[in-house]
């Protein structure tokens, strides 16, 4: 009984394996980038000040963020939010309220 069932299942599966693969076409080349639309990537300068590692992020030559990584502790960020050159400290962990639902209690 089991041999007959296995033989029937194999016989039903053979046509699926016998199908031919479709002919694949090459992927066309992407169009060229328009002139004057360069990607805005920040320039990152990594400095060692004392024992701290300081990474300065600049966009178009203007400093907008500084990441300070102390040797022991959590890194923190100094961000120029208004573009006036005044840096405000932001901790690496945002003030995010994580949802905590009770799934089961007894």
TrEMBL record:
Q: Which UniProt keywords apply?
A: Signal
- Superkingdom of origin organism: Bacteria
- The signal peptide annotation in the UniProt record is 1-18
Q: Name one Pfam family in it.
A: DUF2782
> What name goes with this protein?
DUF2782 domain-containing protein
Q: Which organism is it from?
A: Thauera terpenica 58Eu
């Amino acid at each position: 009984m089991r041999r007959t069932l296995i033989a029937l299942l194999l016989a039903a599966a053979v046509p699926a394996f016998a199908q031919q693969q479709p002919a694949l076409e090459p992927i066309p080349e992407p169009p060229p980038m328009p002139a004057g639309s360069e990607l805005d990537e920040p320039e990152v300068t990594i400095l060692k000040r004392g024992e701290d590692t300081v990474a300065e992020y600049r966009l178009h030559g203007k400093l907008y963020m500084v990441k300070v990584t102390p040797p022991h502790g959590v890194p923190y960020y100094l961000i120029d939010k208004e573009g006036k050159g005044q840096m405000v400290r932001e901790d690496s962990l945002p003030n995010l309220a994580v949802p905590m639902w009770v799934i089961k209690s007894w």
